[in-house]
Design brief:
By secondary structure, this protein is of the alpha/beta class. The protein has helices at 27-40, 60-73, 91-94, 124-136, 148-159, 183-190, 208-218, 241-254, 262-269, and strands at 6-9, 44-47, 49-50, 56-57, 78-81, 104-108, 112-113, 119-120, 140-145, 168-173, 198-203, 221-224, 231-233, 236-237. The protein has a single domain (6-269), classed as Aldolase class I (TIM Barrel, Alpha-Beta Barrel). The strands form 4 sheets. The chain has an 8-stranded parallel β-sheet with strand order 5-2-1-12-11-10-9-6, with helices on both faces. A two-stranded antiparallel ribbon has the order 3-4. Bound molecules: (5S)-5-amino-3-OXO-hexanoic acid and zinc ion.
């Protein structure tokens, strides 16, 4: 089987230090969490940035400063800025980090309820707008899909040439308002994408390790991190992103699945090595 790409979503936009004290806010804290995740086995850092008070921002200068700080500690790691940002941000606000021409970034492929009154809006025209800008800069998007209908959206745009090869999907499952992360959900999604595509699975909350294990078993890739889940086991808070990545490495070893370095991840994803 292909080596396992571990993506670590180190902070997200929603969790706070009240949820888990390791959630990074400052540039230095973010770089340390990225480095710790990388040292534990992550080859991709899914990156959101915060202001020092913890509020989410898509400010390009904050991204630049943070990316430089991460690169100083782990120059080879793949950095994947979020273009999702936080619920309610405008499209152009969300798209700011692509000005830095990272190797990868996220492309959210449809709308989804985010619990309570929150709706994460990505209309078809929004997805087209993001896709055109991302490909124009030569960036590989991670195609974030919160359910099967988002895969369908990707494939419609793929047929029109708006979304292009290589297709690398990220199934984000278990969001309240999105699709659950049961085994049947995972199997349905992974069987719905083209054979030539790659995929990673991010299970939110209690789904994190269960889905990681399924993906490891079936040859997919895995995303973990405090953005998705703050616990290492039921009721026990994770001691940072490192603990979450280490747990994936442990599960992978049970299946004899080797861990991809950043250079190996680049080869798998068709990025320049
Ligand atoms: N914070 C969510 C509203 C992404 O990174 O592209 C969006 C999100 C997806 O996290
Ligand atoms: Zn994110």
């Amino acid at each position: 089987m292909e080596k396992l790409i571990i993506t670590c979503a180190i902070s997200g936009a929603e969790v706070t230090k009240n949820d888990n004290s390791y959630v990074p806010y400052t540039v230095e804290e973010t770089a340390i969490e990225a480095y710790n995740a990388y040292s534990a086995g992550a080859s991709i850092i899914h990156l959101h940035v915060r202001n020092d008070d913890g509020t989410p921002t898509q400010d390009v200068n904050r991204f630049e400063e943070t990316i430089n700080a991460i690169k100083e500690k782990c120059p080879n790691v793949i950095i994947q800025p979020s273009t999702g940002g936080a619920v309610g941000m405008s499209n152009d606000e969300r798209l700011q980090p692509i000005m830095l021409k990272p190797e990868m970034c996220t492309l959210d492929c449809g709308s989804v309820n985010f619990g309570g009154d929150e709706v994460f809006i990505n209309s078809e025209n929004d997805v087209i707008y993001f896709a055109e800008k991302i490909y124009k800069k030569g960036i590989l998007p991670e195609l974030e899909c919160f359910g099967k209908m988002h895969i369908d959206q990707v494939m419609r745009l793929y047929k029109k040439g708006i979304i292009k090869d290589h297709l690398h999907f990220s199934f984000v499952l278990g969001i309240p308002g999105g699709m659950t992360g049961e085994e049947r959900d995972f199997l349905f999604l992974k069987d719905s994408i083209p054979k030539s595509a790659t995929y990673s699975v991010a299970g939110v909350g209690r789904f994190e390790f269960k889905l990681a294990e399924l993906s490891i078993k079936h040859g997919g890739h895995v995303r973990v991190g405090l953005e998705d889940n703050i616990y290492i086991s039921k009721g026990v808070k994770a001691e940072g992103n490192k603990a979450l990545v280490k747990e994936v490495v442990r599960i992978a070893s049970l299946y004899g699945r080797e861990i991809a370095s950043p250079s190996e991840a680049r080869k798998i994803l068709g990025l320049k090595v």
